[in-house]
Design a protein that fits this description.
Blueprint: E1 9-15, H1 20-35, E2 39-45, H2 46-49, E3 61-66, H3 80-104, H4 106-109, E4 112-120, H5 126-132, E5 136-141, H6 145-155, E6 167-168, E7 176-177, H7 183-186, H8 193-200, E8 211-213, H9 221-228, E9 234-236, H10 266-272, E10 279-283, H11 292-304, E11 308-312, H12 325-329, E12 333-336, H13 341-346, E13 350-355, H14 359-367, E14 372-374, H15 381-391, E15 395-397, H16 407-419, H17 421-441, H18 446-460
Parallel strand pairs: 1-2, 1-4, 2-3, 4-5, 5-8, 8-9, 10-11, 10-13, 11-12, 13-14, 14-15
Antiparallel strand pairs: 6-7
Helix pairs in contact: 11-16, 16-17
The protein binds uridine-5'-diphosphate.
Residues 20-21, 24, 283, 285-287, 312, 338-342, 358-361, 364 line the site of uridine-5'-diphosphate.
Amino acid sequence: MAEKNGGNQSHILVFFFPVQGHMNPMVQFSKRLASKGQKVTIVTTTSASKSMKTGSFGRNLNIELVSDGSEHVQQGSETMKQSVERVQTETTKSLVELIKKIKNSSDANEKYLLKFLVYHYSMPWALNIAREQGIDGGPFYTTPASVKTICYHFHKGVLKLPLEEPTKKLPGLPPLQLEDLPSFFSDPNSDPIFVDIAMQQFSNLNEVKWIFHSTFEKLENEVLEWMANQNLPIKAIGPTIPSMFLDKKLEDDKDYGLNLFEPNVECTEWLDSKETGSVVYASFGSLANLTKEQFEELAWGLYNSNHNFLWVVRESEKEKLPTNFGDRIAEKGLVVTWCTQLQVLAHKAVGCFLTHCGWNSALEALSLGVPMVGMPHRADHPTVAKYVKDVWKVGVRVKVKEGSVTKEEISACIRQVMDTDKGMEFRKAALVWKEWAKEAMAEGGSSDKNIEEFVAKMKLT
Ligand code: UDP
């Protein structure tokens, strides 16, 4: 996988949050750093290791597990607050041990010097660990820059809730309505701890020299520029998807490689049997938990759209499927518990992606030129859906009535993307984004340059 290699290399730790959608971009960033000759150790916690299927990551890239104390806790016995506190206390101890071990290892005295800790933005306390151990650190954002900026405006008191007017124009952002804000601001039922967690990211953000974002300049141009003007050292380094779907520079980089779920292998054969652009791919990512009623509306919305569909229904959600749904759909639909999403999105049979607007899913669809039906679920999804529809103009967003989305609305949105001239425009726009995504990651592209700059700085420190 290595592109370049020379002397005087750095060793970089990449510490991620053990959830699929947060692991994937950080793993990809690690691969890019390794491909530029850095030694990278991906660090994650024991709570992920139980279900993690590790892959091969090639030269210069390895994984270490540190304890977050979860092995001593019975599942479901803690509140969210207790769990957050335990992870911080226990991980701090084990991360310090790991850093000391690496510093004392033979590599440290030879070629690779431990220099930097990249940490998931939700764990800003990791910066103190790094600095106390004599290395530098910086956060990695697995959410859009727009969402980070909305949080920033809330932190600074520029965004106040409830909104004084139906639409708010915040610096760097398009006009936003309440429904476009992350759900921890807009949903009155959301646990306030999520706002606390979101605000913690700013506790030491003005102390760091590097802030990495899984996005690319053209995609979030306005907001990235605005954040940079606030003296925040933001570096867009994405889209963080395997190289074989973008610049094809990293030969063996065909998938993310670290899976918490087992993909179903039937998908490709099934897709091969369908006509070009005839399939709706539907997935709500790794965490979404829809109500049984909403699940049924979704099932019939897909079915009644009169298009073929491939639907990911995770094992834990399967009981919400309508009775005998499998028999009813016959050849028209395939329901799987997990798939290799990138391969599916890249398949010519796929004509549209019905998505919960998780940040990775949206980036993947844009990078592969697939138009979307956005059906946001929670967290940052509403803001991503706003951008899909109104900023990138690559799809539609379902309308919510009294807290849910009807099957009629779902079918109508699918038909708009699959069957109309407007749908053709969405596809054309998505194909332009695909080229721009490739361009950003290719040698000399905006994201590639940012990664190069970081690597070059590491060599000098
Ligand atoms: N994914 C996958 N197979 C599936 C569903 C999802 O590989 O069947 C991957 C998808 O490619 C993405 C990640 O899981 O990289 C989900 O991340 P996202 O941010 O979209 O949603 P989250 O799971 O965080 O809500």
